[in-house]
Amino acid sequence: MHEHGAALAQLLLEGNQDEAWEYINEYRKKGKDSLYIYEHIITAGMGHIGSLWETNKISVADEHLATSTCDFLLARYQMEKKKEQNPSNSKKAMFLCVESEQHYLGIKMASQLFSEAGWTTRFHGPNLPLEYAKKTAVDWQPDVICLSFSILYHAEHLNPYIAELEKLPNRPIVMIGGRLLSHYEFSRYGSKKTIFMKNLEDVRDWIKRHPPGVKSSVSY
User: What would the pLDDT profile of 20-32 be if each residue is shown by its tens digit?
Assistant: First the structure.
């Protein structure tokens, strides 16, 4: 994983969209599935960039360039996958980052896994305040609402988001994801119904157990 991550990270830091896409596309042509590409290449690459930033080996500007280039890759990859997947059906999933959270690539990959599985999805990106998330959920009535955070002190936002969204009239399933879930325990912020996802493999496995043509259960 480290080798894949370092190679992609260099291309992302250069802002080299074309070569970064070719790097990703080679694995797609070899038959690697989306989970492999997201976890072992893209997440590894952005993780390597995060380590470089934390050790002051790259600047904020470098990190922003890498993020925007990675965002391009995900958009292009999704366009390619849409040529292969079946049309979406009535099951709906909504994706957003809690207030003040700017790191959105992980939840964007989660949304694309849902989309590939036939769910109708809406990706609302970073930093969506609860009042707007709630209004959108009331209007659109998603079956699943996925929240993400990557900064430890942003966990304080989880409880109000979960409490308000789980009690909506259509009773959506609320999922929580983010890189910190594999290191810390956050279940105290949710209810017995809340689902916490440690990684994209957890997301993929849940999707497999809850195909969009079958009524979902609040149980994990």
Answer: 999 999 999 999 9
Region of residue 163 (phi > 0: left; psi between -120 and 50: alpha; otherwise: beta): alpha
Calpha distance 43→174 (Å, rounded): 23
Question: Would residue 215 count as lying in a domain?
Answer: no
Residue 216 lies in a domain: no
Task: Give the tens place of pLDDT for each residue, 126-149.
Answer: 999 999 999 999 999 999 999 999
Range of the domain at 6: 2-82
Amino acid (one-letter) located at 196: F
CATH classification at residue 135: 3.40.50.280
The β-bridge relationship of strands 144-148 and 92-97 is parallel
Could you count the other beta carbons within 10 Å of the beta carbon of residue 22?
11
48: nearest Cα among 16, 10, 75, 103: 10
Q: What is the pLDDT of residues 91-106, one digit of tens each?
A: 999 999 999 999 999 9
